[in-house]
Amino acid sequence: MSLSFWVVIAPLIAAVLLLVLPKMGGGESRSLSIVGTLVSLVLAIVMWLSFPAGQSGFEFTGQIHWFTLPALWQAANVSVGLSFGVDGLSLPLIAMTAFISVLAMAGAKRSIDRPRIYYFWLSMVTAGLLGVFSALDLFTFLVALEVTLFASFFLIQLFGLPGSPRAAIKFLIYRGFATVAMLVALVGIAYGLTGAYSTSGASSTMTFSIPQMLNLAHHSAGGLFPVAMQGALLLVLLLGVFIEEAFVPFHTWLPTTHEFADTPTNMVVGGLLTKTGAYVLLRFGVGMLPGQIQHYGTLIAVFGVINILYGAFAAWAQKDWRRLIAFGGISHMGLVLLGIASFSAAGLQGAMFMIVSSGLLTALLFFLTGAIEDRTKTVQLKDLGGLSKAMPMISGFLLVAALASLGLPLTSGFISEIQAFIGGFTSYPAVSFVGLGGLILSAVYLLYAIQKTTFGPSAKLAEGLSDATAREYLPTILLTALVLLIGIYPNLIGHLFNLSVQGLLGIGG
Amino acid sequence: MTTPVDMLHQPYWLTMGPMIVVAATGFVVMILEFIFRKGDRRWLTVLSMLGVIAALVVAIVHWSAKPAFVLNTIGVDPFASVFSVLILLSSFLVLLFTLDWSAKSRVAAEHTYLILFAVVGALAMATATDLVTLYVGLELLSVASYVLVAVRTHSIHSVEGGIKYMLMGALGSAVLLYGMSFIYGISGSTNLMQLSSMGTQMFASYPSITVLGFLLMLMGMGFKLSLVPFHMWTPDAYAGAPTPITSFLATLSKAASFAMLLRMLIFIFNGPGAHLFYWAGIIAAVTMIVGNFIALPQRNMKRLLAFSSVAQAGYILVPFALFGVAQAQDWTGLFDSISFYLFAYTFMTVGAFAIVYLVERDKGSLDSDALIGLYQRSPWLAVALTIFVLSLAGMPLTAGFLGKFYIFVDTLHFSTMWLGIVLFATSVVSFFYYIGWLRKVFQKEPVGEVTALTASPVMHTLVALCVLGTLALGIVPAVLLHPLLGLTWLY
Q1: B485 at interface of A, judged by CB pairs closer than 8 A
Q2: In a structure prediction context, what are the per-residue pLDDT tens digits for chain B, which is 491 residues long?
Q3: Is the dihedral angle over the CA atoms B140, B142, B147, B152 positive or is it negative?
Q4: How many CA atoms lie within 13 A of A170 on its CB side?
Q5: How far is Cα A342 from Cα A505, in angstroms, rounded to an integer?
Q6: Which run of H or E residues covers position A61?
Q7: Which terminus of chain B has a smaller tally of CB atoms within 10 A, N or C?
Q8: Cα gap B245→A67, rounded to integer Å
Q9: Can you count the helices (H) and strands (E) in chain B?
Q10: Closest approach of chain B CAs to the CA of A78, in angstroms?
Q11: For residues B477 and B468, what is the distance between their CA atoms, to the nearest angstrom?
Q12: Angle at A152 between CA A147 and CA A155, to 5 degrees
């Protein structure tokens, strides 16, 4: 069994143990779930350190035959495997998933009712996310995707603030549709690729194996299966990605979810779950339908810029920190679209940097605002103020997070934005120029919110509040450190996906 | 001179073995029921279950038997074997279900052998190769079902449901028979073997009458399968019938009707009539859409499951519609996906009805509010219901997901993707009502005081079996898929 296999299985084992072990208290449940995900984190770091340089293929692969679907394709059987592996594209996301999940679990409040169930679902969503990022079989991927869907649904539904059931249903319906659209598009691509091969005379075998699908896409150079079908499949895929990523106009589920979910759930949903769509677009869209990505490049770029600007304006208008972070995230992920649309090395690298950076920063911002809410019982901007006197450390870190979010040099936000815009300007200068407005706006809404929260006259509710506790320092410092580290030394993650990005561009580019 | 031992090696036994065993059990139970009129007669049900198990063994032995048939009317081929196993499995689950029910409520013990005779009819529907025999099997199943629905003679709802079911069922049978008579009229034969070679000729000579025959037969079976727009009786009959009987209607009766519809239409209308199957695709789409949308406002749990079973029938009809597009050598995949989904459907549906039954008995109400706080009342049943509901909604690692995935891939394979998209899009609609249940099950603030929900060991066994089936088919589908590998389904 390969390392990548254990990365996914470890949190799953923890989840199962949580269910079956008797007499688990809150502390034990929490420790168990942390240990499970920590194993994944350690294994991800091991893979990171031993990842062979100059490799753009899948490493640490492992496959277990799961079952055979009889007579699926031209009376031939199709084998479905439980198959995992990593490449430069997925490894940073896997490491980030394990990292943020551990911190979310470690930073969770001590007083949770039904802790067993809580940590069970938290471990499940982690396992699902790790599965999504490392799956090398389409069926495995879809199963993992659905696990994330209902695991996070239960987290929102059962452990959110009052009113969360409605938000949970909204979440489920939106993402349910996204999953359906992706399932249709991805299985369609699998069929298209094999069908393409058979018309060229070569013997075809239907496959759900992602490396084989990539291989087929590489060989057919996107020209062998009917272009109209490719285009239709890309549009269906984009629909799924747009809902999954909460892009305008399918974004309304995200702010609602964040408003009603608790802090660790928000960290996982905002930091990780909303990055799956971007990963799908890179892996399947750019990887398997590169010609269509270029064909629809303008459309994608325009939607990217719409998201950058709409997200920023909407964030400015919010009165609630959680909704503000949600819209800020939408604005940032718009930049990912622009980077992907540019179909250039810089653009795709920028997209990858932005996925990681936005994940870390969203998690950090949710954690800090959660810490503030624990003390003040509110995240409404109008009620907050002058917190820097009572809690200088939390306020300080909040400022750092905000500055990184708006793209201050030497933070991860800077490298992401600059790369994505370089890519965008090479391909779509006019569209990208409009998008630049988002940079200014992000400074406006973030600094405005910071000013309302930490500076100014001390609000009554800020009096006598304590600063960060040991439990809160750990996630805060680690997340901030990573944000700065990536900003100062981007190659830390850049070296992993550079070659993969080159590989993506090599296809039909 | 043949001895009884020789009989066992006769084609009669090979082809009709399960049927003979179940029918014999039925007669024995009926006679014993007359003799022992007093006291607890649940052992009769246990006896029936043993009979069903024996028949199941016989059917499994013949799983991949060489095709053989007797009297030109009853045959055995993998198609018959697979559906016989499915029918016997669901009848076992239903009998287990009635075991608890007849202990708890005073009902006439006739239901035990009525179920057995219905199973004989169902087996005939899966194995017969003659229109007349098929029809007799269908009527045997139907007449027994009408009585079973109305078996609680003191309940007005039960009687109302029974009457409605009987009227609509009789109408369906009449329409079906009308369609069959057209086919007989132009071909002069009721034998499916002969009919299958006459398809081209029938089409050439009497195209419009053949089409009429197809549509009437599809409509007639549409009543039995509660396809839209022939589904009106479903909620009343399902809600009126005692819950174990409801689960019988939803699984066993449906599986047998699907077997009959498949065999009948494929044999008669293959070749030039293939394009007719497109109509089934349209009915499937309408059934999925209407079934899922009218389930949305339902508060009565049994009515909701009734509409959900309407929608599920639509899903199963999707691969059926593809028979027209697919070449004969590609049919295997379609048979596989239909039978896989039916197996999955049987487990999750019986399981869901079992829990609805327990909740109803506990709270005395069929309103879905009775589910509130189920997690506190019985965590195990709450988790089991969650598994069934997630499976019905098509969530992965349950049987329902793989079943839908398989059907979806079929639609892609035969370039009928729009049906696959309708299938998944309407399943998202179904999230609403299934998840609505889960919300209540896990609701934090139960109304009133929390009392533990107790269930008999029999019910726990039934629920456990259904959970096992639902999860096994979702996590290790090989248990069913691998036996299906390489079956040559028809003669």
Answers
A1: yes
A2: 556 556 556 667 777 888 999 999 999 999 988 887 777 778 888 999 999 999 999 888 877 777 777 777 888 888 888 999 999 999 999 999 998 887 766 666 788 889 999 999 999 999 998 999 999 999 999 999 999 998 887 888 888 888 999 999 999 999 999 999 999 999 888 888 888 888 778 888 888 898 899 999 999 999 999 998 888 889 989 998 889 999 999 999 999 999 999 988 888 887 777 788 888 899 999 999 999 999 989 899 999 999 999 999 999 999 988 888 877 777 888 898 999 999 999 999 999 999 999 999 888 888 888 888 888 888 899 999 999 999 998 888 889 999 999 898 888 888 788 888 899 889 888 888 888 888 888 776 666 677 788 888 999 999 999 999 999 998 888 888 888 887 777 76
A3: positive
A4: 18
A5: 11
A6: strand A59-73
A7: N
A8: 34
A9: 21, 2
A10: 11
A11: 12
A12: 135
Say which DSSP state B404 is in.
H
The C-alpha atoms of residue B450 and residue B433 are separated, in whole angstroms, by 24
Q: Tokens for B59?
A: 């059917």
- Give the list of residues 6+ apart from residue B261 with CB closer than 8 angstroms, or none: B217, B218, B221, B225, B320
**DSSP class per residue in A349-380:** HHHHHHHHHHHHHHHHHHHHHHHHHHHHS--B
Is the peptide bond between A249 and the residue preceding it cis, with omega within 30 degrees of 0? yes
Q: Give the Cα separation of B435 and B439 in Å (integer).
A: 6
User: pTM of the full predicted structure?
Assistant: 0.88
Classify burial at B214, counting beta carbons within 10 Å of its beta carbon; exposed 0-12, middle 13-18, buried 19 or more: buried
Stretch (H or E) spanning A59: strand A59-73
Pull the structure tokens for residue A179: 């999953």
d(CA A487, CA A408): 9
Contacts of B439 in chain A (CB under 8 A): 157, 165, 169
Instruction: Provide CB contacts within 8 A for B57, sequence distance 6+.
Output: none
Distance CA A131, CA B107 (A): 52
Q: Give the amino acid at B113.
A: Y
CA dist B353 and B369 (Å) reads 16
| Chain A residues 154-173 within an 8 A CB cutoff of chain B | 154, 157-158, 165, 169, 172-173
Chain centroid, CA B257 distance in Å: 7
How many Å is the Cα radius of gyration of chain A? 22
Q: Which residue has the tokens 């293929």?
A: A57
Q: What is the ipTM of this complex?
A: 0.81
Q: Which residues in chain B have Cβ-Cβ distances shorter than 8 Å to A184? A: 408, 417, 420-421, 424
The DSSP string of A235-298 is HHHHHHHHHHTT-TTS-THHHHHHHHS-HHHHHHHHHTGGGHHHHHIIIIIIHH-HHHHHHTHH
Separation CA A189–CA A178 (nearest Å): 16
Q: How far apart, in Å, do the first and last CA atoms of chain B sit? A: 31
Distances (CA, A) of B93 to A376, A434, B258: 56, 65, 19
Strand B68-70 relative to strand A76-86: parallel, antiparallel, unpaired?
unpaired
Q: Is A263 in contact with A107 (CB distance < 8 Å)?
A: yes
- Residues of chain B contacting A142 with CB distance shorter than 8 Å: 396, 405
Chain B touched by A320 (CB under 8 Å): no
Q: Which neighbouring-strand residues pair with A63?
A: A83
